[in-house]
Write a structure and sequence with these properties.
Blueprint (H helix, E strand, L loop, with lengths): L16 E3 L2 E3 L12 H9 L6 E5 L5 E3 H17 L7 E5 L4 H12 L3 E5 L5 H11 L3 E5 L3 H10 L5 E5 L6 E2 H4 L19 E6 L9 E5 H12 L12 E4 L6 H13 L3 E4 L5 H10 L4 E4 L2 E4 L2
Parallel strand pairs: 3-13, 5-6, 5-7, 6-10, 7-8, 8-9, 12-13, 12-14
Antiparallel strand pairs: 1-2, 3-4, 10-11, 14-15
Length: about 300
Amino acid sequence: MNPSNKRWLTTVSPSKVSIEGGIGSPYHPLSIPEVSLSHFMLQRLTLYGDHVALINGLTGEEVTYAQLHHRIVKVASALTRSGVRKGDVIAMFSPNCVEYAVFYLGAIAAGAVVSTLNPLYTAYELQHAVKETQCRWLVCAEVLVPVALEVRKSYPKLKEIFVFGSAEGCRPFKSLLEDDGKAFPTNIDYDAKNDLAVLQFSSGTTGLPKGVMLTHYNLVANIEQTCSEHILGFVPGYDVIIAVLPFFHIYGQVVVMLDGLACGVKIICLPKFDPEQYLKTIANHRVSIASVGNCCFGVG
């Protein structure tokens, strides 16, 4: 399939139209599966095999869909061996990177609730978030280890800190990928409509950030809504998305990371917006979709 190079897409809902005398959507009703987010995503990943799923925009490292699926299983198994059980909260404190998607889906597959936190948090803000969520594990970027360790001193419930990279006092994320995957939990009993998958935090414009509870069903429904009927227009094996909108935020997390992976496109991860790097990445990787503000634009 060769999509038009003149696509101009937005994530804004289509105008409502009159349907049988009432107000409704021009799109067909959806049947949302009542399954865990990890079950839903792992099934989707198997559809795309050796297509590239994720690329580190700074180093060029590539991960295929088959490799991503394999790594998620390993991470879930390793976390299970580390004592993670259904309902345990694991905080993520990192800018965008390839490892972020792997750990996020691996932690949820282990039954954990993932709390995605702003990597710009100060120690005070991070401490507030981990106390609010009662998290027992935390994963962070190497550059953020000093902040995480400072919080750990006053929050003894934090059992272990994982790090994307290496740092004294932290367990390297790469060690999780050495697991054989045999402890991957297959018997977790999920209530998709009530069990939490993600704990996000508000921006904190009126005081400290506040936790927002998202169930497995919430997220699966959102993915189905945006991926169905070509609302986003992502084309498997063709489209390339530049991921600079932060994965800790709901837009970057669902529309870019989860929708992109569920639809089989290539995602180029950048840790922050740098104008020169951003434009080079678009050119070098022939990016076709760029999410900017509240819109998705076709750029190539």
